[in-house]
């Protein structure tokens, strides 16, 4: 089967424009999620100016949360909520406001997830910020997934804990068990990020899809630079897609909110 090839002319207010494509049943798709958007961190403007479709994971309740989410949406990118969750180790101040912690009651967890969704305009999904402790907690993650489903959002497991229960819970709730495959910038060097991106592209070629996570902030300038310089090299091999494209096409996810969503 022939490879789907898409060349992007750039991103305008109407979204990424495919100027030439060869449609086949054998898609090789790469979804790049950029975490920690929403606090005017280094690399944010560069990510939002990227000539391919990315997914931005926007943290709620921060100075540029709404501005960044709206800008990404206007450029045709996917927006998801980057939900702060308690880690096994790490500084509490890294979590940011409105975090999900293990000492919360069921009602408090539900309230914080709902408020976070309301604070991020145009969100179609959610992933975890940190969260190695919470993503292995069935009580809390069951509530988080329930709220997401009620509001028409899917959940992407960032996979900060190999004992995460997110995938099995998602399947039990008829939600897509989508998760991160590769971290791009766990080491902040262009050489490493380039190597990780090449691994991701090869995984997409081998397995048809790959989900990767990068960041703005500490590694933001290197991450954005490597993604931009790699686009022309990789776009003949893989199609850059939003995470929403994957969950709809691969897992046949259809948003069916049963509660009002105020963040559109």
Please, could you describe this protein's structure?
With 264 residues, the chain is an alpha/beta fold. 34% of the residues lie in helices and 23% in strands. The strands form 2 sheets. Strands 3, 4, 5, 6, 7, 8, 9 and 10 form an 8-stranded parallel beta sheet that branches. Strands 1-2 form a two-stranded antiparallel ribbon.
**Helix-strand category:** alpha/beta
Number of E strands = 10
Q: Please, how many helices?
A: 8
The oligomeric state of the chains shown is single chain
Distance between the termini: 39 Å
Shape: globular
Cα Rg: 17 Å
Taking pLDDT < 50 over at least 5 consecutive residues as the criterion, the unreliable ranges are: 1-25
> Strand count, sense and closure of the main sheet?
8 strands, parallel
- The overall average pLDDT, rounded, is 88
User: What portion of residues belong to β-strands?
Assistant: 15-25%
Q: What letter string, H or E per element, gives the SSE order?
A: EEEHEHEHEHEHEHEHEH
Helix content: 25-40%
